[in-house]
Amino acid sequence: MELQSAIYNEWRHVFKLDPEREISDERLDAICMSGTDAIIVGGSSGVTFDNTVDLMSRIRRYEVPCALEVSNEEAAVPGFDHYFIPLVLNTDKAEWLAGRQIQALRKFGAFIPWENTSAEGYLILNEEAQAAKLTGARAALDSETVAAHIYMADRLMHLPVIYMEYSGKFGDMELVKRALRLVTGARLFYGGGIDDAAKARQAAAAAHTVIVGNVIYDDLEAALSTVEAVLAVELPK
Ligand code: 1GP
Asked: Any idea which positions bind sn-glycerol 1-phosphate (predicted)?
């Protein structure tokens, strides 16, 4: 278990691709050959078995490791290197913490490649993000409340990954750094609003793993510039 889960413990820079969005072969080639540590496939809506298989098989032409964030049981496609199961920590709607997951596990629990599967504790911190609206996340949290969530995820629940998600907006790096100082076992992922090398550097100094999404579709050159920017920053603590 430990050895397999370590796959993402080496990741500093990750590109996240949304199966619902179209991406040309050329652009996908540039992303897969960019030197990024991994690609995560995932999205908040419109993720289906078919569009996930399609994107996976295109990424599979390359050597880059590829993980799936399983946000919908119908789109649980075999063949990825790793699977992340998101648990939304800052919502009052229990279905997003341990509701839908339980339903999926009732059906598929015995068939899940557990050695390649990890829980991912999500803290959704941008109220405007689609994921926040979908899950009813209480995104406007003060620093003490964020710290309490980190204690819960890291020290009580022993989640292997905590994901500070600002999707669509560049987050509060002081808050992310504080979270990083608090984690003892979890890998801290940060994602949201990175659209140039300078923001990528700041995020790389605040979190273990930096995830870049939207800019891939908006400005390929800027997206590619984040790889070197992140990899040049020494891993915090
Ligand atoms: C989204 O955290 C990722 O889940 C990346 O965010 O799309 O804003 O880069 P952006």
From this structure: 16, 163-168, 193, 213-214
The model's pTM: 0.96
Contacts of 119 (CB under 8 A, 6+ apart): 84, 85, 87, 159, 160, 161
pLDDT digits (tens, 9 = 90+) for 51-72: 999 999 999 999 999 999 998 8
Residue bearing the CA closest to ligand 1, atom 1 = 167
Residues 6+ apart with CB under 8 A from 93: 99, 135, 136
CATH code at 70?
Answer: 3.20.20.390
The single residue listed with the structure tokens 């509701």 is 99
Domain containing 148 equals 7-231
Whether the CB of 211 sits within 6 Å of ligand 1 = yes
Answer whether 201's CB lies under 8 Å from 231's CB. Answer: no
Given the CA of residue 131, which atom of ligand 1 is nearest to it? 4
Specify if 91 maps to a domain: yes
**pLDDT per residue as tens digits for the range 191-212:** 999 999 999 999 999 999 999 9
Closest atom of ligand 1 to CA, residue 165: 2
Q: Is residue 1 part of a domain?
A: no
- For residue 116, how far is its CA from the centre of ligand 1 (angstroms)? 23
Using one digit for the tens of pLDDT, what is the confidence trace for 16-50?
999 999 999 999 999 999 999 999 999 988 999 99
Q: What is the domain count for the chain?
A: 1
